[in-house]
Amino acid sequence: MKKHVALCMSALSIALAACGTPDKPEAGSASVTPSQVAVSPAHASEQRSAVNPADHERTQASAQHQDASQYLCQGDADACKVRGPLVADSEAEAQWLLAHGYPTHAELARLEAMGLTQLKAEAQAGNKPAAVLYGKKTAIEGARFQEGLGILRQAATARNLYAYYGLSAVYGAETKNKNLIESAAYLRLAYLLGDAKASAGPALQGLSAVERVAADERAALLYRTVATYRSASPRPIE
Predict the structure, then answer these.
(1) How do residues 191-210 score in pLDDT, each as one tens digit?
(2) Does the reported pTM lie above 0.85?
(3) Residue 164 in contact with residue 189, Cβ under 8 Å?
(4) I want to staple 156 with a disulfide (CB 3.0 to 4.6 A). Which of 28, 101, 163, 233 is the partner?
């Protein structure tokens, strides 16, 4: 009996020793060295983004927030009383302007100083306000009205709400295609699609009562044909 117990204890000791000993690579198998598992900084960054998508999203949201903040009025209370359609009264409105293709005043000045070639390059790179300026300048300064109109309508179809300001400006310019009712109608369309500040646009000033009715009727038609009954995206106004 004692001999049997001793044999069992010996077998148990051998099993425990085997469990506590790290496995060694078999002969002929490739061993992995620390240098082989080292991750380059670029790959490490990619892995961190993959492992922590929330961190990546927060970084993108932060960058977007910094861009949107440029729409907020930077002056004192008196200076901010006069606000055009490119100025936001709140962070929510600033985000709305950014999402719908509106430029800041500084960005608009930068783009207006560019020629058609530069604007085209900016537009092709994904700059939404540049696409509007490119279409507008093509129609007015480039004397290619239909081409410019097509660029602006394409931008509008891509839900660039600022494109309707460009369309209004094109029809309001001193060219053979000038049409104040059409110009006003595109601002009314921007209003119907959610931009409450579009109703105060210069194209709507000075129109007679009859012309205003005609502009409203034309806007209703454009809502069906150009905007294709798109749902409004209300501008957050406090």
Answers:
(1) 999 999 998 667 777 889 99
(2) no
(3) yes
(4) 163
